[in-house]
Amino acid sequence: MAADLIRERAAALDAGDPLADLRDAFVVDDDGPLYVDGNSLGRLPHATAERIKGLVDEWGARLVTAWPDWIEAPSRIGDQLAEHVLGARPGEVLACDSVTVNLYKLAGAVLDAEPGPLVALADDFPTDRYVLEGLAAQQGVELRLVRREELREASRDARLTAVSKIDYRSGEIVSEDEVEGLVLWDLSHAAGAIEIDLADAQLAVGCTYKYLNGGPGAPAFLYVREDLQTRLTSPIQGWFGQREQFEMGPRYEPAPGIDRFLAGTPPILSLVAVQSGVELTAEATMAAIAEKTRRLTDLFVELHDAWLAPLGFTLASPRDAATRGGHVSLAHPHGWQVCRALVERANVVPDFRRPDLVRFGFPALYTRFEDVFEAARRTKQLVELGAHREMDAAPARVT
Prior knowledge:
The chain is α/β, with parallel strands linked by helices. The protein is built from eleven helices and 13 strands.
């Protein structure tokens, strides 16, 4: 496969890309590293820096008198997430806390309301398993950690099954047909990468610092379907989830609706960063983002087959784009060395997952097809030169 022809094809795809102009909405140094790790942390939107500065100025000028304008940020931004990212209804999503805390809140609420065991995938993201393990130990509940092929059967009599929508290592999508009963979806690697429709889902959590570009440590989100909200009460009974927040009554009484899943004071500065990211997603539309994601990752898979498979790489992500998220994982016997060599010698930033996976993430809002081509080309050249084997030798830089 001639590199020049593929480069020309990538350039043509970029020229016809309806989302191409949105790259200018982000802080991008074209002379800096080739960034293919947006599946871990998204880029900074210019609007975020401007909006945070404006809020800092407002804080300085208005002090506590600005709280009436800030206090509804979790539900206001939650509604934006619901409409533009998650396929949910108004009043079903909050932007708040972290994924870990939100997992604890929703799983803990179910433990108090439903009988049966907890079920999770044995190799799911550690936080998800750790939270369930802690809850099960605290309340004397059975926790079943199962393999993916066992998930549907195990979920049938579970009080709750918690599962990531997209596998954090392989990028493979878990379908709704693979699980039954009450399900808590972790959408951390899905939100902003693929189209999501929560209309018939029950519970979900997810982060905003990956494909939604909310920034490091940005608040997460939680989703509770409207008809479940009155049945469940958060185990973290904070004053923002209280029915009459400022009455300071002697006993906790949960607020009606989704607000009962709030806990403490919302991080307003961080929430406005989430808002900027969601607004860019809304401008692009999730349909267009998902379509470009499939095309970007398809190109990388094609280049893997032609250039990288002969060099010892193995595709560790689904070949079918319909069952794949926004990143592609390649296995290599020296995966860690390849990843470090890409960063240190080739000016490419992917990431690594044990034992041997190099993950390449391609967020559609700012990734060009030429970036995909270049990531594969530099990886090919680096391994051909043996740079990954001689990390201490500082060979010639790959260009």
